[in-house]
From TrEMBL:
Main location class: membrane
Molecular function terms from GO: L-amino acid transmembrane transporter activity
Recorded GO CC terms: organelle membrane
Record's keyword annotation contains Transmembrane: yes
Residue span(s) of domain Amino acid transporter transmembrane: 47-422
Organism encoding this protein: Macleaya cordata (Five-seeded plume-poppy)
Topology class, membrane: Multi-pass membrane protein
InterPro entries documented for this protein: AA_transpt_TM
Region of interest called Disordered, as start-end residue ranges on this chain: 1-32
Protein name as catalogued: Amino acid transporter
Compartments (UniProt record): Membrane
Coiled coil (UniProt feature): none
Length: 461
């Protein structure tokens, strides 16, 4: 017997030589992620601890890191760093609740856990939120990759990209053409894998590239601190009126988005050789990612101060005032651009499962239907490519997806599952935490959406 995860829910299938090779069986509580039949067939004996940590860390450390220095600029250094750590702690708590209630409901997907608590409507709502969140993230990834290569514009200032700086501005260094080549030569091969563990090596490389980015940024900042060219950062937020106070709440969706990985927890757990390691994997990944986030936010804000842009990578186009500054600028941008290219397929994996589960809830798992697998993959890639060419900047994308889908996935749904408590296992701590998460998520999301709508109409006016 084997558990095959797909977003329409979870089913168990047994090989049969007499009928269709995949026959649905009643979910009887066996949580073993893989059975010997399918293991022998595909030659896979379960994912390792390190491979799972790499895949989960890759899911977490994506484009959100680029917006964190700007978030710290908005909140001030001390509150900003405290909030990064606090959201990490809250994320660990919500993932623990999802896993615990998943065990009680015998569910092996996030949508299965919510479906157990709220029925089919809850399952569908979660699938829609995963789709919105992951589409937004992948569009952001493409935007940043385009900016790394071809540059970006803030106001009247054009920030040069790497290739644009080397070869000049031409049609073949434009963001659209660069993203088309990236889609065909990089994304298309990587999204063709049907098992998330197949991406463990690219995930390990992506984590290493993120570390390179953080190490170089830290080194540059330390050198500038030593030579006295870095000023004292603003420690607290600037609150001059009511509008500036409410604007602080718009940073919460960005912080939540930076840690969203709940939709990848069960696919990773289902492939583990030892599923009991999942809690340790989550803690290890969150500890690593929090360290990366704190270092990037601290040294990024120290380095650029009040000039920190929404996408801090765009800041690495000017003279850093240190030896080999130009080379370091290019290494920083290229390393993180490559990191995002390798993160892309891991996030895309969960997106494809959710779309398939929404459109074909009763079909066999998508990995067993090549035509469906290919058509959904091509359709999603086309949508993401078009979106990346029309969304104006990453802050706008983070605000809208973060204030809606991300806060729902990270805070609202886990809290709702605990408060519903279909199996009577919620503790007093669960209920207190859940009400607090609900209040924080709804308040910050409402303020963020209102602020964005006001900004859009104000800019048009």
């Amino acid at each position: 017997m084997t558990v095959l995860t797909f977003s329409g829910g979870e089913r168990k299938y047994r090989r049969s030589p007499r009928n269709h090779p995949l026959l649905p069986q009643k979910h009887d509580g066996d949580d073993s992620p893989f059975g010997s039949d399918i293991d022998d067939q595909i030659g896979f004996n379960g994912a390792s601890f390190s491979g799972a940590v790499f895949n989960l860390s890759t899911t977490i450390v994506g484009a959100g890191i680029m917006a964190l220095p700007a978030t710290v600029k908005e909140l001030g250094l001390l509150p900003g760093l405290i909030m990064i750590i606090l959201v990490a702690v809250l994320t660990e708590s919500t993932i623990e609740m999802v896993l615990r209630f998943g065990k009680a409901s015998k569910a092996v997907t996030y949508s299965g856990v919510l479906g157990d608590a709220f029925g089919g409507s809850g399952r569908t709502l979660l699938q829609v939120c995963i789709i919105v969140n992951n589409l937004g993230l992948l569009i952001v990834y493409m935007i940043i990759i385009g900016e790394v290569v071809s540059g970006t514009r803030t106001g009247v200032v054009h920030h040069y990209g790497v290739v644009e700086g080397w070869l000049g501005r031409h049609w073949w260094t434009s963001p659209s053409f660069v993203l088309l080549l990236t889609t065909l030569l990089v994304f298309a091969p990587l999204i063709s894998f049907k098992r998330v563990d197949s991406l463990r090596y690219t995930s390990a490389l992506s984590v290493a590239l993120a570390v390179v980015f953080v190490a170089i940024t830290t080194g540059i900042t330390v050198v500038k601190l030593v030579n006295g060219s870095v000023g004292m950062p603003r420690l607290l937020p600037q609150i001059v009126d009511q509008a500036s106070f409410w604007k602080l709440f718009t940073t919460v969706p960005v912080l939540v988005t930076a840690y969203i990985c709940h939709y990848s927890i069960h696919p990773i757990e289902n492939e583990l050789k030892d599923p009991s390691q999942m809690k340790s994997i989550v803690r290890t990944s969150l500890a690593f990612c929090s360290s990366v986030y704190v270092a990037t936010s601290l040294f990024g804000f120290l380095l650029f101060g009040e000039q920190t842009l929404d996408d801090v990578l765009a800041n690495f186009d000017a003279d850093l005032g240190i030896p080999f500054g130009g080379i370091l600028n290019d290494v920083v941008r290229v390393s993180y651009g490559l990191h995002l290219m390798l993160v892309f397929p891991v996030v895309f994996f969960s997106l494809r499962l959710s779309v398939d589960g929404l459109l074909f809830p009763m079909a066999v798992p998508i990995g067993f239907d090549n035509k469906r697998f290919m058509s959904i993959s091509v359709g999603l890639m086309g949508f993401i490519f078009i979106g990346a060419n029309f969304v104006p900047n990453i802050w706008t994308a983070f605000q809208f997806t973060g204030a809606t889908a991300a806060t729902s996935l990270g805070f609202i749904f886990p809290a709702a599952i605990a408060l519903r408590d279909s199996h009577g296992i919620a503790t007093k701590k669960d209920r207190i935490l859940s009400w607090g998460l609900m209040f924080l998520a709804v308040t910050s999301s409402t303020v963020a959406i209102s602020s964005n709508i006001y900004s859009i109409f104000n800019d048009q006016g």
